[in-house]
Sequence to fold (501 residues):
Amino acid sequence: MTHQAIPSLLRNALHKQQSQKQKRRPLVVEVDSHVVSISLLRSQELSQQKLPSKKKRPTSVASQPTLLLLLSQERLEILLADKNNPLCKHIVCLSEHQSPKADLRRLSSHSRILATTPQRAIDHIRRDNIFLSSTQALVVAYDFLQGKEEDDILFLTRQKAFLDDCRFIFTKLRNDTIIELFVSSEDHLPRRIDELADNMLLLAKQTWERPLYPLRVIPVPSLTNKVVEETLYALHSDPYLLIGNKENQWEIDPKVYPRITSRSIGFAHLESLQVPQVSTVVCIDLDEESLVSVIRQINEWEHPITQIVALIRESEAHTITTSKENLLMNNTTKPLYESDEVLSGKIQMLVAKLNIDENPEEIEELKKIIRRNVPFYRRGHFSAYLLRELLGSPVKKTPQQQQKVARPSSPAPKKGARNIPEDAKTLYLNIGNMRKLYAKELSQIFQQQLEITAKDIYSIRIHPKFSFVTLSPENAEKAIEKMQGLEIRGRTLSVSYSHNK
Fold:
């Protein structure tokens, strides 16, 4: 997420809420740490959306704001001090550090956006200096800075008073007014959202920020040019954009046959990159924070891609796939490609290049020579022989494939498998991955609702339309009691004991 623009995923989610035919609901929107910057940009955007044509445009003064922006006093002061902020030219700001009388001169000036604190807005509403009858949108930036001499109790009291004042202002607006309250996280609100306004809706960050392109993680024992090249062959989705820690760190040798179309850049130059026409983005040896940044930036690209792949050292792969940002990355883990997959990729790339060859007449001449010299029933073998000679990539059986041929008499237990107690209970849930619900997210929901840890969840199995969760008898009973009727991904949850083992 950047400070310069509202993320497209968030904008789409907000637009979807606005365009719904049913009665518009007030929103609480989670945006991480960019509360103020997103609120300012959103204020300007909403104001521009409501602009009538120039010929019919009525006189608009700050005493009848089209849009009201509410901030904490310290955030308002920072906005006033930033003379380079272009938004300041379009906003009338009323600070609590000046008298209400001094505000009247500013209220007479023309502006569509009025920014102030909830307390100062209420002062003017009660004095009939501000009328909200023409207000089409209200944006609240719930973000505070604790003063050096301000203790935690006073700081919390000030935040509660801010929300109480907002609640009063909500009641003075028309029913069709857009209300959007931006917060870093719902957990930081000292009031429940149903206490702020009737029928208020939470637009959680994990809901609107689901990536357009899930991340495929491939753990590798070491990162070498050969590993990178073979991965690109196996993906067979040319052309590629390779993103490493350094500029041109992973340039692919153009002499390798068949040639791979790729471009390599350093992660630091991604923001300034002119968006390329690529099929697959391959991140090589990037850490968790960098991967999240790549996904967020690619979400903003105009040109669609096929997938995002991350080559990660095996020692770091577990950290990436179990990180707190895993919901954003929404990743799947795939083992390193085997030799037959790499060879298949090379063949498919050759076929693709054959279709666009610039000299088809040369291909036709070679076909005639082959027909004259190779019997029809031997041409398949002849093609395979040529491929082996040219690519030097015979298919070798992997240790896993060899084990399939000679299976041990008794199967060995899976590495890392957990021992499930005999008295454990398995629950049936009427939701699965067709609702884009995945095991890690379901585990987090159970931990939060039941106040347990991941170790208390013995197993989770996700199917397209249903799921199974195995818990201790006590936690299973608690889950049925507390999670029955819970809404997940727009589906009312039904929890019951499973009859399957």
Q: What stands out?
A: The two ends are 44 Å apart (CA to CA). Residues 152-170 form the longest helix (19 residues). The chain has three domains: 8-208, 215-340, 425-497. Confidence is low (pLDDT under 50) at residues 51-58, 404-413.
